[in-house]
Design goal:
The structure holds 2 protein chains of 2 kinds. Chain A is an alpha+beta fold. Chain A has 8 helices and 9 strands. Classes of the chains: A alpha+beta, B alpha/beta. The structure holds iron/sulfur cluster (SF4).
Chain lengths: 297, 193
């Protein structure tokens, strides 16, 4: 990349971060509105969702972070394979530093041993970069900002699981999903979305569960068995009555997304990640010159 | 909607029950991990907390034209302060705690005994809650604790929240957890064919 390209790509990274932090994608916004309509007027759930909707409007209008916890910074990047991946990684990190300076991201990354805040959001493991080369001539850059409150209520099951009576089949997986929604109560800033991976190992399971968040909320799982599982788990979870913020109500979850990975015969993990209502994910098609061509969500 | 004004009286606090939707106006103080530890250790803050309110929040503050303004002020998870909270309510005479996620048994008992409530703010609503702040009136411990951990004295107007732990020993968190637990048990039993 020449310096003009680099400059442009850096700007694109900063703009993607800004938009992700300040604006909810359309599919999530619609899900929040749908949830709000479903709640009884004058109820606590109605009250909470009304405030959440106001907050979404205010953040967008002011171009300010939706939530002050701007979360773990997770990039998923496809890039033209003729480019050098280390150069792209460097620009992504620079983008994070610049976006932090501008206040799009809070100073949110702390050394686990000393407790010191780097002040830049850059350090070991931050941001997380998933970089994949492809044969196309442009980039697709996706970004997710995942808050700590909801990350803390993520949970991994190893089946069979005696406590909840979950065996190694889809009925067992569904039990895990409902149990995860129950365990979370309102603590993950619900109404949330569950990303679920069946199989994999402990690490790829959680990785896969987060990748489910890249799907649009309204999409249909191409695997009919998983599609059915998603529908049923969502419907049942919304009958638990936990509701927004755990105040009680009909909207406990706005979505359940499930994917499957191969596993070893000896293992059967179900990994569940919880995403809060402040579901910040965005993405853009970016030309090889570094121009944002189109938003993906 | 119930309107509350600081300083809160024991009577007004005792009249609240879990599930009440409230709007709070007056003075509140932020405090999170460092401050709770510090207060628990017996240190005394320079401001008067009697009838007061502590807000579990690490706000994002900006100095503009010599004045502080808050650009984001949502609640942080309260349960981290559970080991300290009851003693602090007692010593400082607090009447309300604002946060998210609820608190534990010790705090619930302290609320009941001493006349204090837990107000659940809307997690993530950083912008709405920053708008409720009319004025940043002062800060204590800025150097020592750093900006997010300092005690910020805030004047708020109609700060929205829900009472989830009242002064009668009730907890909405407990109620919802047991009701949803019963429903969950039904589903799990159905699936066990
Ligand atoms: S869980 Fe989400 S909405 Fe709640 S405080 Fe964290 S980032 Fe914000």
């Amino acid at each position: 990349m020449n310096t003009t390209q680099q400059k442009k790509l850096l700007e694109a990274f900063i703009e993607i971060i800004r938009k992700t932090s300040a604006e909810l994608p359309k599919d999530v916004l619609e899900a929040v509105q749908r949830g709000h309509r479903a709640e009884e007027k004058g109820s606590r759930a109605d009250y909470a969702l009304g405030i959440i909707e106001n907050n979404i409007g205010l953040a967008k209008a002011k171009s300010q972070p939706l939530c002050q916890d701007t979360g773990s910074i997770l990039f998923y990047i496809h890039y033209p394979r003729k480019l050098d991946h280390s150069e792209i990684a460097k620009l992504a990190r620079k983008g994070v530093i610049a976006a932090t300076k501008k206040g799009y991201l809070r100073q949110n990354s702390v050394d686990s041993i000393t407790g010191k805040n780097s002040g830049t959001n850059v350090g070991p493991g931050s941001p997380t970069l998933h970089l994949e080369p492809w044969a196309k001539d442009h980039f697709e850059i996706r970004l997710m900002l995942k808050g700590g409150g909801c990350e803390n209520v993520g949970i991994q099951y190893s089946l069979p699981e005696g406590r909840i009576g979950a065996g190694r089949d889809l009925a067992g997986v569904k039990k895990c999903i409902l149990d995860a929604a129950f365990q979370a109560q309102g603590k993950g800033c619900g109404p949330g979305i569950l990303g679920v991976a069946i199989g994999g190992d402990r690490a790829t399971g959680y990785l896969g569960s987060k990748e489910q968040f890249l799907r649009k909320l309204g999409d249909r799982n191409p695997d009919p068995l998983l599609a059915k599982l998603e529908d049923e788990a969502l419907a049942d979870a919304n009958q638990l009555g936990i509701g927004p913020m755990g105040f009680g109500g009909k909207t406990t979850l706005m979505g359940v997304k499930v994917g499957a990975l191969n596993r070893l015969p000896a293992s059967y993990f179900v990994s569940v990640s919880y995403m809060c209502w402040a579901f910040r994910r965005q993405g853009a098609v970016v030309t090889s010159k570094g121009e944002i061509k189109k938003w993906l969500y | 909607m119930i309107q509350l004004n600081t300083p809160l009286t024991e009577e007004s606090v005792r009249s609240l029950k879990v599930g009440d939707m409230v709007e709070l106006s007056g003075i509140i103080f932020t405090g999170r991990d460092a401050v709770h530890k510090w207060l628990y250790d017996g240190n005394t803050p320079p401001m008067d907390f009697r009838g007061g309110v502590i807000y579990h929040c690490g706000p994002v503050m900006l100095k503009k034209g010599g004045r502080w303004i808050s650009t984001a002020a949502g609640p942080t998870t309260s349960i981290r302060e559970e080991p300290y909270q009851a003693a602090i309510i007692e010593r400082l005479g607090l009447r309300a705690i604002i946060g998210k996620g609820g608190m534990g048994e010790k705090t619930r008992q302290a609320c009941q005994k001493l006349g204090c409530v837990y107000l659940h703010a809307i997690g993530g609503a950083a912008q709405v809650l920053a708008e409720a702040i009319q004025e940043v009136q002062g800060v204590f411990g800025y150097e020592e604790f750093g900006s997010p951990e300092a005690i910020w004295q805030l004047k708020v107007e109609r700060f929205p929240a829900v009472v989830t732990m009242d002064a009668h020993g009730n907890s909405l968190h407990k109620e919802i957890e047991s009701a949803s637990g019963r429903k969950l048990a039904e589903f799990q039993a159905q699936a066990r064919k």
